[in-house]
Amino acid sequence: MRVLVVDDDLELLELVGRALARDRHEVWSAASAEQALTELARRAPEIVVLDLGLPGLSGEELCQQIRGRGSHPLILVLTAQSAVASRVRCLDHDADDYLTKPFAVAELRARVRALSRRMTLARPEAFTHGTLRLDFVARRAYVAETEAPITAREWKILELLAANRGSVVSRAELLGRIWKQNDESAAASLEVLVGRIRRKLGSDVVRTVRGAGYSLGDGRG
Question: 220 forms bridges with which residues in the sheet?
């Protein structure tokens, strides 16, 4: 996997870089958000290990910019900020995992390996359904050749459903994998986003299976 590590602590950059290289990841580093944006454009990393306490543009702001640009690496936040509010904000900005400092290098390596497996096994390449075409690699959606705007979290829902095409994905799995929590607020957010996906892409794209969860409409891709 191509991994970008973003932290203003140069010793930590070296430590994490060596640790991940032992797992045969291709690792680059950046000591600021500005450097990270340059590396993101040049290297197209698949995983970003991101510190929040960066000089200038913060890690949270960088996370938002990454998603706002349509880039979709998996993001592991690595930070000394252990407050629940910080964790919630990062997950709301579509971070994929969160590890607090101080941390065990073995746990960091395990979490990056888990993200690698998720990317390798779960991400589909394409899906078509009638006039709908989803390109999961470029993250572009077209309905009758007209591009439809899909948010980062809507893409995550579609990717998880597409990876399990032919099966029903439970609400609990969607909430656990995407929101990292299963409560009334997250469930309400899921309902809203499924409604938005249907309005953008077609009412039959996501099927509700009463009492079980959701599945993606029959398609080929």
Answer: 128
How far is it, in rounded angstroms, from Cα 145 to Cα 143? 5
Is 0.85 surpassed by the pTM of this model? Answer: no
Neighbours of 70 (CB within 10 A): 12
pLDDT tens string 150-177: 998 899 899 888 887 778 888 888 887 7
In sequence order, the 6+-apart residues with CB closer than 8 A to the CB of 11 are none
Residues 20 and 98 in one domain: yes
Residues of the chain with pLDDT under 50: 219-221
Classify residue 98 as left (phi > 0), alpha (psi -120 to 50) or beta: beta
Q: What are phi and psi of 134, to 5 degrees?
A: -110, 125
Do 116 and 137 fall within a single domain?
A: no
- Cα separation values, 175 from 110, 157, 199, 200, 209, Å: 22, 10, 21, 21, 16
